[in-house]
Amino acid sequence: MQLTDILPEDWRDATLLGRIQTAEGPTPVLLHAGRALNISAFAPTSAEALSRAELATATGPDLGAIEDLSVASVWEDGDLKLLSPLDLQCVKASGVTFAVSALERVIEERARGEASVAAGIRERLSERIGGDMAKVKPGSEQAAELKAALIADGLWSQYLEVAIGPDAEIFTKAPCLSSVGWGAHVGVRGDSHWNNPEPEVVIVVDPSGKPVGAALGNDVNLRDIEGRSALLLGKAKDNNAAASVGPFIRLFDQTFSMDDVRDATVSLEVKGPEGFVLAGASSMRLISRDPEDLARQASGKNHQYPDGFALYLGTMFAPIQDRDTPGGGFTHKVGDRVKVSSPRLGVLENEVTTCDIAPPWTMGVMALIKNLAGRGLLGAA
Asked: Of 164, 198, 214, at which residue does a domain stop?
């Protein structure tokens, strides 16, 4: 796979920050003006790089012309092994930010994690509130009126509270250093029997709380586990190899801004080993909360991130296409190839396995500090 095949369509104009695995260890790289540069002497971590105003003009050893490089994956060899572009940033996520995903969370809750009864619940809820939900501004007077009506009908849910109430759902998706990048395995728990990918835009925020770039993400979701109880969100969301981000962080500049994020369409394709194909798309124009509002709700005077953070913005795409049995809906199989793409952000592709079989997460903060110290890079920060 050529590197250019997974980059934004206008990659020649973009400034892209990523991380690769070298013989020495995890290494930040900058793709700019047609070249790939090792910027580890400028900043040994991507978190440090994103905190520095001069990142776009950083220099370092030249790794070659972008057009000449290939990328390695779990399914083929290549020049560069991409890691998640995140390292010390905390990985956060926002939930039920689209009307469709809000309804699906309510369905999970009412189905108690049983996929076989979801279709009937989905039909009833869609008839009652589907049209109204998409038009309601969270926290508005109209939202309060809809809430009162749903309570009266016995249809209110904690998921609807964060969908149309004043406060967004913001949760920790993964610890720093645990996310995976393009070409890696993504994991679903072996004890989950109803799960799906969640194609999303991920915005990256610097230590001051300012969004500085965006990437693609797959917020792997275990619908049966969360459906049993919302208190199992951590077990459903934070697992080995369950957070994929990449392929690179596209920096905000004159060629790419938050308005491009607001206008993005994120596409999903799943190809199964048995020939099953699932495709869909999620339009950021339909998000119910603005990305900058979500970033503000995630941080501020009550919660700081000295190394910055990344925030999954949510998805409107919850696959319901039957895979094995009528009414059974969709769930992953080992060997699924999942491709998340958007023209201005590139392609994020991973292969599904179970969390216990995916390579274990071993490079934690202590290991990274020791590695960087041994390479003489800490003095450069």
From this structure: 164
The sign of the CA dihedral 130, 132, 137, 140 is negative
Contacts of 42 (CB under 8 A, 6+ apart): 28, 49, 52, 55, 58, 59, 60, 380
Could you give the angle at the alpha carbon of 238 between the alpha carbons of 206 and 101, nearest 5°? 85
**Three-class secondary structure of residue 162 per DSSP:** helix
pLDDT band of residue 125 (cuts 50, 70, 90) is low
| Angle, helices 99-111/118-125, rounded to nearest 10 degrees | 130
Average pLDDT for the chain: 90
Residues 244/184, Cβ–Cβ less than 8 Å: yes
Output b/e per residue, 57-83; b: 16+ Cβ within 10 A.
Answer: ebebeebeebeebebbbeeeeeebbbb
pLDDT digits (tens, 9 = 90+) for 21-43: 999 999 999 999 999 999 999 99
Note the pTM of the prediction, 2 decimals: 0.89
Vertex 19: Cα angle to 18 and 25 (nearest 5): 165
177-217: pLDDT as tens digits: 999 999 999 999 999 998 999 999 999 999 999 999 999 99
Q: Are 200 and 218 in contact (CB under 8 A)?
A: yes
CATH of the domain at 218: 3.90.850.10
Question: In the chain, helix, strand, coil percent, each to 5?
Answer: 30, 30, 40
Q: 349 near 6, Cβ under 8 Å?
A: yes
Same-domain status, 22 and 139? no
How crowded is residue 191: how many other Cβ atoms within 10 Å of its Cβ? 12
Q: Do 69 and 10 lie in a common domain?
A: yes
Under 8 Å between Cβ of 295 and 303: no
CA 225/CA 8 separation, integer angstroms:
35
